[in-house]
Design brief:
This protein is an all-alpha fold and about 130 residues long. The chain contains 3 helices and no strands.
Length: about 130
């Protein structure tokens, strides 16, 4: 039996947080309407993806902080401030666009970790009838 943290781990891997299935991305930052494996629906209510924006902001802070502190530690006492600043600004511009889709899977994983999926959250399977939720 999977642990309670399994959905979060699956989301961190960029897979379906419910079943671990792949093929859930319709584009770089877009999820398909539902998982092709378990039919878990990614169509959520208005405002749901605000949590994914919080996750991406945390990722940006983590990456920028690691870049800045790592750069300081590796180059001290002759810190290349201009290079650290320019690359840091570039990271702050690129990372949100590049990783927003991944932050969505992390957010859904967090949500399922604390609020397990309900039967209503699965799309009906046209070949096999109503969703099973498993």
């Amino acid at each position: 039996m999977p642990s309670r943290a399994t959905p979060l781990y699956r989301g961190l891997r960029g897979a379906c947080p419910h079943c671990g299935g792949r093929g859930i991305f319709a584009g770089v930052n877009d999820l398909t309407d539902h998982c092709p494996t378990c039919r878990f629906s990614f169509v959520r209510e208005e405002g749901y993806w605000l949590g994914a924006m919080i996750v991406i902001m945390a990722l940006v802070i983590l990456i920028f902080g690691t870049w800045t502190v790592g750069g300081l530690l590796l180059t001290w006492p002759d810190v290349p401030w201009t290079m650290l600043t320019v690359v840091g600004i570039g990271l702050n511009i690129v990372v949100p666009f590049a990783l927003y889709g991944w932050s969505k899977t992390i957010w859904v994983g967090l949500d399922i970790t604390f609020n397990p999926a309900r039967i209503e959250e699965f799309a009906p399977d046209p070949d096999h009838g109503p969703p099973s939720g498993t």
